[in-house]
Amino acid sequence: VKKMKSMIKFGLLIALVLGLAAPALAHFGMVIPDKNLMERPGEIGLQFRFWHPMENSGMNLAKPKAAGVMTGGKKIDLLPSLKEMKQGKATWWKGSYKIKRPGDYIFYMEPQPYWEPAEDCFIIHYTKTIVDALSAEEGWEQPTGAKIEIIPLTRPYGLWAGNSFTGQVIYKGKPLAGADVEVECYNDKGDMQIPAPAYLAQVVRTDANGVFNMALPFPGWWGFAALTTDDVKIKKDGKPKDVEVGGVLWIYLHPVK
Ligand SMILES: [Cu+2]
Predict the structure, then answer these.
(1) What's the pLDDT at 22?
(2) 12-19 — which CB contacts under 8 Å span 24+ positions?
(3) Alpha carbon of 21 to ligand 1 centroid (Å)
(4) Among candidates 179, 182, 227, 228, which has minimal Cα distance to 202?
(5) Structure confidence at residue 23 (pLDDT)
(6) Which pLDDT score, from 0 to 100, does residue 257 have?
(7) How far is the CA of 27 from the centre of ligand 1 (A)?
(8) How far is the CA of 60 from the centre of ligand 1 (A)?
């Protein structure tokens, strides 16, 4: 299996050298907490990234426009807690929050628009993850109010590897039909193997009600990025450019042993 991965890497290299169409790496906004179940009060660490999760490499994430936590219907600003970090050449942000009482905590980020020359568009991934504290198990379905967002229909924690996950994509307050949702595992230890580039990100499309379902075979952090072209453009050098908006959700699947 190791050999297969090096063959893929070799294949990508050849494609780059020969100028062949290399598969587009999927971009994902990321909000990854230390864990998504807090059994007692305490501090939780957070990572904010704009990344290629399976490749475990990424882009520079400028200081987000917004980063915070929503709990009990209230939002708390976490921007002041963010510290700039580097992995390779890419900038990411480290944050933390002290959880004091039971509840579900939705950690979210709104990044600044990212200019992607390869796609001739801006990218904005509204990203979130949900942490349950002290078994409250309440509030995980609450929308944060992002322009595009995945509302979990499956409770987004306490999941095993192999579970399936169902969510509904909401854009401007309405279900988004026919949208592509990219699904990718965070290969943070670099030990996951892919037999072909199509395995980098999987894709599922939303139905007429904006609903999608996906089974997830491995333990670890899995991201869903529901994508659409926004109804507003952003100017780049005086020219209006498309904006890809993504509603991104991260969930954790525990290994089955
Ligand atoms: Cu990229």
Answers:
(1) 54
(2) 12/197
(3) 15
(4) 182
(5) 57
(6) 86
(7) 5
(8) 9
Tokens (6 digits) for 57:
């490499």
Q: CB under 8 Å to 111, separation ≥6 — which residues? A: 29, 50, 61, 62, 64, 65, 124, 125, 127
**pLDDT in the model for residue 146:** 98
Residue stretches of the chain with pLDDT short of 50? 1-8, 10-11, 13-19
Distance 51 CA to ligand 1 centre (A): 7
Find how far residue 146's CA is from the centre of its chain.
14
In terms of C-beta distances under 8 Å and separation of at least 24 residues, what long-range contacts does 71-75 make, across chains too?
A: 71/103, 71/104, 71/105, 71/106, 71/139, 72/103, 72/139, 73/139, 73/142, 75/144
Question: By the 8 A CB rule, do 218 and 192 touch?
Answer: yes
What distances in angstroms separate CA 190 from CA 36, 53, 135, 183, 242, one per listed residue? 21, 10, 32, 17, 33
- For 91-116, write each residue's pLDDT tens digit: 999 999 999 999 999 999 999 999 99
Structure confidence by residue, pLDDT tens digits, 22-72: 556 889 999 999 999 999 999 999 999 999 999 999 999 999 999 999 999
CA 218 / ligand 1 centre spacing (Å): 24
Cα(156) to centroid of ligand 1, in Å? Answer: 27
Cα–Cα distance for residue pair 122/24, rounded to 1 Å: 15
Side-chain-facing half-sphere of 56: CA atoms under 13 Å: 10
Q: Residue 184 C-alpha to ligand 1 middle, in angstroms?
A: 14
How many A from CA of 57 to the centre of ligand 1? Answer: 8
